[in-house]
């Protein structure tokens, strides 16, 4: 059995056709007005840009993730090599220090010399392997050039959409005024220079580390999460 609210929320069957007709008229009037304003092409272009921008953002995310994984994997491979070099060099240094203070017998000296020689023979191989991983980390940064080009193009697309939508609003709401005058007034109210609309794209992460509202350390992040109850 339906509740009173459900019955009240359900439109009468005889009104469905009228409702659909009114929606159809609304869409048709909107389309005709867009054609009359001469901005149908601009709206269509803006609609086509959105999926393209989504694809570009996905490309940037994938490239960045891949580069991060390459760099982290290279670090994981290089770290054990450096740890072994550090441990072996420290061990041999302590043995040589001990030998200078307490001379050893011939067998002990011979063993120390052999171990040192083996270590010195291994050092070039270890450093070469480390250099290879460092090169891999460097090569992983090539994504910046590719994604930089995509980001630049994406900014151009966003600015293009912004201009087209703004022109649509201007032509619709202020048909008797010039686009430049209305655009200048809008940018003035939004504190964005009319001759530099790209500045509207700069709203994002705080890049000034001295600003009062910047979280700059992990401790501050932890404190913030604690305050929020996480």
Taking pLDDT < 50 over at least 5 consecutive residues as the criterion, the unreliable ranges are 1-10, 197-208
Please, what is the average pLDDT?
A: 72
- Biggest pleated-sheet summary: none
Indicate the structural class. mainly alpha
Q: Strand fraction band?
A: under 5%
Number of helices: 7
- The end-to-end distance, rounded to whole angstroms, is 43 Å
Percentage of residues assigned to helices:
over 70%
Shape: rod-shaped
CATH superfamily: Helix hairpin bin
Short description:
The chain is mainly alpha-helical.
Provide structural commentary.
With 230 residues, the protein is an all-alpha fold. The chain is built from 7 helices and no strands. The longest helix is centred in the first third of the chain and has 62 residues. The radius of gyration is 34 Å and the shape is rod-shaped.
Features:
230 residues, mainly alpha, Helix Hairpins, 7 helices, 78% helix, rod-shaped, disordered N terminus
Break the fold down into its secondary structure elements and pairings.
Blueprint (H helix, E strand, L loop, with lengths): L3 H6 L3 H25 L2 H62 L4 H35 L2 H31 L5 H11 L28 H10 L3
